[in-house]
Amino acid sequence: MGLDPTNQTGRDPASGSPRERLAALRAHLAGPGGPAAPRPVLPLGLAGIDAHLPGGGLALGPPHEIAPMEPADAVAALGFVLALCAGRLARTRGAALIAAAPSQPLPHGHGLAGLGLDPARLLLLEGGSDAEVFRALEAALHARALPVLVGLLADGLPLKPGRRLQLAAEGGADGAAPPLLLILRPAEAGLPNGAATRWSIASAPAARDRFGTLDNPRWRARLERCRNGRGGDWLLEWDHAAHRLRLPEPLACDAAAAGRSRA
Amino acid sequence: MTRLRRAGLAPDRGPLAVAAEGPGGLRLLALDPEARALGLRPGEPLGRVRARIGVPLQVHPADPESDRAALLRLCRWAEGYAPGVAPFGPAEAADGFYIDVAGASHLRGGEGPLVDDLAGRLARSKIPARIALADTPGGAFALAEYGTSDRVIVPPGGAAEPLRALPVEALRLDPGTVSGLRRLGLRRVGEVDALARGPLARRFGEALLLRLDQAMGRRPEPLAPLTEEAAYRAARGFLDPIGRQSDIVVTARLLMAEIAPRLEREGLGACALRLVLHRVDGVMRVLDLGLSRPERCPERVAALVSLRLDRLGAGLDAGFGFETVALTVTVTGALSARQTELGAAPQGDGIDALADALAQRLGRPLLRLGARASHIPERADHTLPWTLQCSDSASRKSRRAPSPVRERVGVRDQGSPERSHPSPGSLREQISPARERGPEPQPDSCESHSPWTRAPTSWPDHLPPRPLVLFPRGEAALDVLSTVPEGPPRRFRWRARIHAIVHAEGPERIAAEWWHAPGAARDYYRVECAAGRRLWLYRDGPHAPGRPAAWFVHGVFA
Q1: How far apart are CA A221 and CA B88, in angstroms?
Q2: Angle of the B206-216 helix axis to the B197-204 helix axis, nearest 10
Q3: Which helix H or strand E contains A189, and what residues bound it?
Q4: Nearest one of A87, A120, A31 to B457, comparing CA atoms
């Protein structure tokens, strides 16, 4: 009815190009309050990926779940998380909090330089259980003192704590941008939850510099779930000097980059 | 009386009396010399006195609490003579205090000069006093109260003779015993002392003999000296015991609001607080709260108490409720007055507030990574408690030296048969990894290993790439296929998985710290396996003929 262009009236949203009609429909669906104010996001700096994410980046506030594809990829997933940390810290002041459940690997101070992360801007908290990690993250979300929060969990993110974290992120509406909340869980601990995005990370052969030695790390990142967005599968390379992710150029000799990149 | 005159509440001249509610109306409690000269006696009803004398009489109400506070102030002052000063208790029924000058009189040139000095100073302060120095507190009290002179000094062992002449009231007895003794015609201490003890104890009880013996020095009498009082303390008692968390939090806020002005006057803030909850059945719950920076804001203290009670939950066990809540500032730190901004959230102190909140809520400190001057990888970093010092506001001094929390322990002596018997040095290192933290000087003075001598962020920037996750101990790589004597591994098994190496870089040779323990140099290789995982391996020492060296995986790159 309303979408039929032959049946249009003056206030019908079905006028103009399909893109405008879509925008009008979205505004209509958003309710009488009008579309909400644009939420702050962390753009990844890659147009191909940012287009998949609602708002053009990782939303600040709601939890983002990151998991290794296999248990052996746990460090690669930690590297991806810390790369996102470094990307956020490069744009803002403050420090990142890593709240870790017991037996979760903590980063080595000298290894952080390889990701371009200053160890002095990292705060650690060794929680006694996942529940303590959730409480610490919740307290930090309420405090609004840190721009990045990372939770290293042992048993995954269940629905209820995820919802609590989301509410805590929405709670403090005092003008300060909510922090980027990243949850790293083991590969086998997938639980249904309310995370905004779910990433699955595997390690990939690193980039080589012109002498043929190991250079920037690369990861295969799969966006498995994305609320109001689309999934995807990319090969990402972390440039620790520029603090940004990039898609490796598909060189003739780089079979991995040429074959798997699909933006 | 003296307190009133000194405080300027009463005129210097004219008869003055202090009256209090007694049996049958107001009765006189204390009189000044002028009033005494009019023939007044303590205990007389005020109405009768007013009718009897024709002179206007200044009457002030009694204030026992202020009297007690004034006496305690005087005791504090008297601690300049000797540390053991005890105010009179209820048994003495008088205002005064004991000074235990044993071992301290020579500082003033002997007992005589000491008493003279004390009397002189009290007289200059217009405090009338009677001073007696004797072997026992009981004897000194009796001589001071009922002695013939204002200043009595009894030589050691000679207290019995003057005491015998004193009235029995001097023995600190209750009024019933005194009147009983008087009915029997015993008016002097000496008369009582001469009687047989058995009938006396049966007739008047053990207390009479105790007091008599204490005065005569036959039984010891310990004094209860004034304790060091907490300078910043507030307490509140409840007629109706409280048990709910919100009530305790509100009480803590009120108590802190009571303490805060005192702290502010001194330019101090609380660094550590102790909240003591007295339960109705006598159980005491003590909550110690630590703060990362000096604080005197009642709301923040209340928030911390609330978080702490959150964590305790049912562990608080209020039972039938708490009847007294006391808040004491145990550690103070300098806190200058701060300019507060209206409507603006305070910037920069977000992390310390969060650190306090986490410490109260989880009981866990916030940590940070610190570099250490060691090229052995597992010793090159450690975690330290986060303090305000390491954040950007470095001007404020931290009140405690950071101490390492987690150490990575040495990795050698594993899997290498020739060193299966660890040397004493390496054994000690493994048992007590805190050895390096000691304040004793290390032989290598150029590379001091005490972590607080170094700046917290002195991370070297010339290191070859280091793994993102470093294992505390190297994990053995099995079935290693590598070129001998030098060269990276080609394939190995680690964590139940065969890793085929497609790329290797190295070696990076890291020698053992021979000044701590002998060990072999390790050759580190950065390898990338076919799946794209990058590992950090090392070969522990060189290959020996017929016995290849062991390989260990020590870390994983991102």
Answers
A1: 81
A2: 130
A3: none
A4: A120
For residue A44, the tally of other CB atoms under 10 A from its CB is 23
pLDDT tens for each residue of B287-335: 888 888 888 888 888 888 988 888 887 788 888 889 889 998 888 888 7
Of A120, A123, A126, Cβ closest to residue B456: A120
State the ipTM, two decimals.
0.82
Retrieve residue B28's tokens. 């006189």
Q: What is the pLDDT of residue B227?
A: 63
Question: Token pair of B305, please?
Answer: 């108490």
Task: Check which CATH number belongs to the domain holding A125 and give it.
Answer: 3.40.50.300
Which residues of B are less than 8 Å from A221 in CB distance?
none
Which residue bears the tokens 């390690």? A203
Least Cα distance to B262 among B317, B329, B311 occurs for B329
Nearest to A109 among B364, B369, B534 (CB): B369
Given a contact cutoff of 8 angstroms between Cβ atoms, the answer to whether B449 and B362 are in contact is: no
Which residues, at least 6 apart from B206, have a Cβ–Cβ distance to it below 8 Å?
none
Q: Residues B118, B133: contact at Cβ < 8 Å? A: no
First CA to last CA distance, chain B: 82
Residues in chain A closer than 8 A to B391 (CB atoms) = 95
Side chain identity at B199, as an amino acid letter? Answer: P
Contact check, Cβ <8 Å, B558/A119: no
Q: Which domain holds residue A83?
A: 43-260
Q: Which two tokens stand for residue A115?
A: 């990701």
Taking residue A211's Cβ as centre, other Cβ atoms within 10 Å add up to 6
Interface of B with A in 74-103 (CB under 8 A): none
Q: Which domains does chain B have, with CATH numbers?
A: 2-62 (3.40.1170), 66-216 (no CATH), 233-337+349-359 (3.30.1490.100), 404-435+448-558 (no CATH)
* CA B1, chain centre distance (Å): 37
CA–chain centroid gap for A241, Å, is 20
Which whole-number Å values give the CA distances from B120 to A10, B104, B111, B158, B298, in the listed order? 106, 18, 14, 25, 46
Please report residues of A whose CB lies closer than 8 A to that of B307: 139
Task: Give the pLDDT band (50/70/90) at residue B109.
Answer: confident
- B420 sits in which H/E element: none
- The two tokens of residue A56 are 């053009």
pLDDT at B57 over 70: yes
Cα gap B253→B302, rounded to integer Å: 5
A120-136 pLDDT, tens per residue? Answer: 889 999 988 999 999 99
CA atoms of B449 and A235, how far apart (whole Å):
43
Tokens representing B326?
A: 């006391």
Q: Which of B254, B335, B322, B250 is nearest to B282 (CA)?
A: B322
Set of chain B residues whose Cβ sits within 8 Å of the Cβ of A107: 369, 468-469
Q: Which of residues 381-400 of B touch A (CB under 8 A)?
A: 381, 383, 386, 390-391
The one-letter amino acid at B31: L
Other CB atoms within 10 Å distance of the CB of residue B148: 9
Which of helix, strand or coil describes residue A174?
coil
What is the count of structural domains for chain A? 1
